[in-house]
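Hi! If you just cloned this repository, the fastest way to understand the data is to look at a raw example. We've pasted two of them here, unedited. The first protein comes first, obviously.
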Amino acid sequence: MHHDKITNVLVKQIDDKVLQLQEALSDGRVETLDEYKKVCGEVRGLLTARNYIIDLNKAMENSNE
């Protein structure tokens, strides 16, 4: 599988998970401050990982040129 396809699959999975977490926040399913902090930390971590994956893909594209 080409690294662009791998990147797209990973980014889509992360985006889907972030959306689930955002929906939990907006639907009121996060009831305590501790749960809120956990969900926010998870979103932050996923978005950081997403950026690392995109940066890695760009670096790999540049190294192939």
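Ok, and the second one:
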Amino acid sequence: MSKQQSNEVVPASGSADDGRAIALAYAAAGADVALTYRANRRGADETVDGARAAGRRAEAIRADVAEQGDLDALAETLSRTFGHVDVWVNNAGADILTGDAARLSRTEKLDRLLAVDLRGTVLASWKAVELMDAHPPASGGVILNMSWDHVLGGGITSDYAQVFCAAKGGVYSFSRALAHSVAPRIRVNVLGPGWIETAYGSALDPAVKQRIAAKIPLGRWGTPEDIAAAAVYLASDAAAYVTGLMLMINGGGVV
């Protein structure tokens, strides 16, 4: 992390496991943390407790990143509470694979992903730039967006891969364009996870998981902590000359 105290914003309403790991890793690295939730207040409060246990300030704020009004209110709260934001992580994502969402039609799943993963990332990134320009971080701002490693290879053979590539591919391309627009004052990079042990992975048949792991060069599924370590690096001074990049956290599954 930056040598100066940092304030992080980690919208974690979608990939909650990754969001929790990122928030806790930032707190362990010395950052104050603000995180958002849409419905899972209990999970957000538990993450806040973990960050505070690391000796950092932490706040949970309800916000739907697909709603402009919620993002405006979020920015106002952050300005009032923290003063400025050094790092903004867009990790929110729609779940279309588990629970009732798994039974949605292909079109309904696409609409959800485009609304939250793509539109939400674009709107939240614009709000982050606005906030950072209004209250410039001393060390320069950082925006990290969440994509998917398979957008570089066309995904895999399934309907869900097509809709994920549509949304997450948009996140990747948008982030690269944004990186050019806001340089040099703000760095924009992308996290490209592969097969990660989240709720979806936990629910898979063990034999299926083993077959997937066998195709990954490093021989295992990734963990939320693997994602968090990459997020800490890209937010830190060690990545001061890195922007417009998608860092693949996938064990070599897509190269």
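That's it. A detail worth noticing about the second one: The chain is about 45% helix and 15% strand.
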